[in-house]
């Protein structure tokens, strides 16, 4: 490619992504923050935590099939600790990795997560959640998802409420050799790398559960291609 074409192609790329840039004015959600996290929009390149989905409630920041958080305050007791009570009053179901009793530290993991890692779980088709992100530079990014899936699933991604990429399949992490049946929901893996084109600046990334569900979603790792 000749040097004279580079500015032209750069302008075309900027024009193609400009329609996706900036959070729409009508969006009522705000970036997550609490006593431990005050970093504002999550940064790309970098790690985007699913449990740090936006604030704003049902129908704005997320949609869940029921109002109960099946992790915080249900599976995890309300004992005053940060992890057990994380976002306990919201409909999105959240929990965290546990090394005790070899729950999330087991021989069937493809990838070993750290202890105490927050994640979104108990997912069902039709559910979604928003993540406000801040992209350093426009361009092509590659991402992988840390997840578990006992039966496989399909995700869809929007950026500023427009489709961002083809549906993202997540392979099942079920293992017939597992001796503890319920632990098939706790075999962690990294998804195949997926490419997306992102504009610079602040945007809203929406994660949709399309098919099958029952996946645990910990984070998206984005890197510039």
Task: Kindly list the characteristics that best describe this protein.
single chain, 225 residues, mainly beta, Jelly Rolls, 7-stranded mixed β-sheet, 5-stranded antiparallel β-sheet, 1 helix, 14 strands, globular
Summarize the topology.
Elements: H1 5-18, E1 42-44, E2 46-49, E3 62-63, E4 94-96, E5 118-120, E6 128-135, E7 139-149, E8 153-159, E9 162-163, E10 168-170, E11 189-190, E12 194-198, E13 201-211, E14 215-224
Parallel strand pairs: 1-6
Antiparallel strand pairs: 2-14, 3-6, 4-5, 6-13, 7-11, 7-12, 7-14, 8-9, 8-10, 8-13
Walkthrough of the structure:
It is a single chain. The protein is mainly β. It has one helix spanning 5-18, and strands at residues 42-44, 46-49, 62-63, 94-96, 118-120, 128-135, 139-149, 153-159, 162-163, 168-170, 189-190, 194-198, 201-211, 215-224. It has one domain (5-224): Sandwich (Jelly Rolls), CATH 2.60.120.260. The strands form three sheets. Strands 1, 3, 6, 8, 9, 10 and 13 form a seven-stranded mixed sheet that branches. Residues 5-19 have low confidence and may be disordered.
């Amino acid at each position: 490619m000749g040097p004279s074409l580079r500015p032209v192609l750069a302008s075309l790329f900027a024009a193609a992504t400009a329609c996706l840039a900036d959070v729409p004015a009508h969006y009522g959600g705000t970036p997550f923050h609490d006593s431990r996290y005050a970093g504002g929009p999550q940064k790309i390149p970098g790690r985007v935590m699913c449990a740090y989905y936006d604030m704003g409630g049902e129908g704005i920041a997320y949609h869940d099939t029921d109002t109960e958080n099946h992790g915080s305050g249900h599976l995890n007791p309300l004992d005053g600790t940060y992890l057990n009570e994380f976002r306990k009053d919201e409909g999105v179901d959240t929990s965290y990795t546990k090394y005790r009793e070899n729950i999330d530290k087991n021989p069937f993991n493809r990838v070993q997560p750290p202890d105490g890692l927050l994640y979104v779980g108990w997912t069902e088709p039709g559910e979604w959640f928003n993540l406000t992100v801040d992209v350093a530079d426009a361009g092509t990014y590659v991402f992988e998802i840390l997840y578990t899936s006992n039966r496989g699933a399909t995700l869809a991604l929007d950026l500023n409420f427009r489709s961002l990429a083809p549906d993202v399949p997540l392979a099942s992490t079920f293992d017939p050799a597992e001796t503890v049946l319920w632990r098939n929901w706790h075999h962690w893996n990294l998804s195949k790398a997926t490419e997306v084109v992102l504009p610079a600046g602040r945007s809203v990334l929406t994660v949709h559960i399309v098919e099958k569900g029952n996946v645990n979603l910990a984070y998206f790792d984005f890197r510039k291609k």
